[in-house]
Amino acid sequence: EALVKTINSGKTRRSTSREREMGHKEMTFMKYGNKNRR
After folding, report:
1. pTM (2 decimals)?
2. What's the structural domain count of the chain?
């Protein structure tokens, strides 16, 4: 939950193209990556 919170706060605070991409990648990773890992 902490990661999601930091990503969301970063998105609202400063929406940099690079940060947004990183956040999007992490979100997708958390959604699908975890399933594949476990």
Report:
1. 0.25
2. 1
